[in-house]
Amino acid sequence: MKILLIQPKMNKRPMDTRLKTRMSPSLALLTLAKLTPSNHQIKIINENMDKINFLEHTDLAAITVTVDVFPRAVQIASEFRKRGVPVVAGGIHITATAEESAHLFDAICVGTAERVWLKVLEDAENGTLQRVYKDSNNLGSDEICEPDYNAIDPKKYLYTNVISTSRGCPHKCDFCYNSCADSVKYVNRPIADVIADITALKTKHVMFIDDNFIGNPDRTREFLICIEPLDLKWNAAVTVNILNHPDLLDLMKRTGCQSLFIGFETINARSLQSVNKKQNSIEKYDVLIREIHSRGIMINASIVFGLPEDDESIFKNTLNWLVKNRIETVTAHILTPYPGTTLHKEMTAKNQIYDFNLSHYNTAHVVFRHEKLTAKQLYDGYISFYKKFYSIKNIIKRIPEDKSQRVPFLMFNFLYRKYGKLTETFSRIIPLNYLGKLAENLSYFKGCKRAQREKRLVKTLQEKACIRY
Asked: What is the number of domains present in the chain?
């Protein structure tokens, strides 16, 4: 069969640019590509950069679905089904809303794909597709399939060096998909498999994109000890629980950790309690930040506005706290009740949700009634917060004390956020992967070797630009 693996076009938030939509490939689709036997023909289409040719001969279309692209996924499925092409959908949103989604596609996959994908292909080939394929049982560590990194066209992405060391998260925060009934159970991948991925990517800079890199601290220690000889530079997402493991922080620094994404969510203690974020303790936030910064590691803080106890003061107070602590980058969100989560069920029961257009569920729209903030106050406060955090004045105030982190800090704050539109213009001339490599070399690889790399890279960029344009 000829199979199309499709990633629908994402909905950009106000602060996003083309760089965001082409940041990295979908590991979900790369995993499906690896699971597919070689007698089938695979084509991956990322709609953020590729157009779907609905007239092209196709035997099966498979779509990976997150909540905000769900309406587009339904449109894509409708177009294929009109032409007699069966469509199967999977992904985190499908798993969370199986009953509501099933009738919109020929088949859906609920849970993980490893143990059901071959059956989907067999049934599709025989014209006997079932409506639902479900595997919500615990996936064994050795059953996790590695992505097919050979299926990536690197020129389309800023970075291709994305790797997961685990699936799921042991925590069940109310606003997160992990609070859904069929959410993926937390499991670590075999260390040898992760190292094989690093080797396959031929990179010294890795972005570990686990939901929680320290979900099993003992396993994280074991993993870091194993990768220490690789001399990597890496980034990952952790919970505030990392403060309980100072030795692990030391090991992270020793093995090349450059920055940690941390879900602080809010500086309002009562709001944390309202969404079951039990692992967070606001009293320890400042200590945690000092511990991380003292090791020369940067912080990307995740912040959520619109939690139940928030009022208008939350925007200014959060901004001042982040600037005071020299937080290097921030990813802010408007609280969004993802369907299937505990938060969505609670808001539905209270009749708080008034916007049911799922394309607005990208954490940049207000879709519910807040008890203390109007929709305008919440949205305007969110936008104003972003602008002020990335103002030149506040960027300067937040410059890291550790000199080794100043180049990546300035590049992200100015070239990605503050002047992202200008960088986006360059990305239309220079292939994205070369921009990514340039950023990596300038940020992380120093001394004579770095100078040699930069010289070669600049020459390559000039040659590629001339050849391509």
From this structure: 3
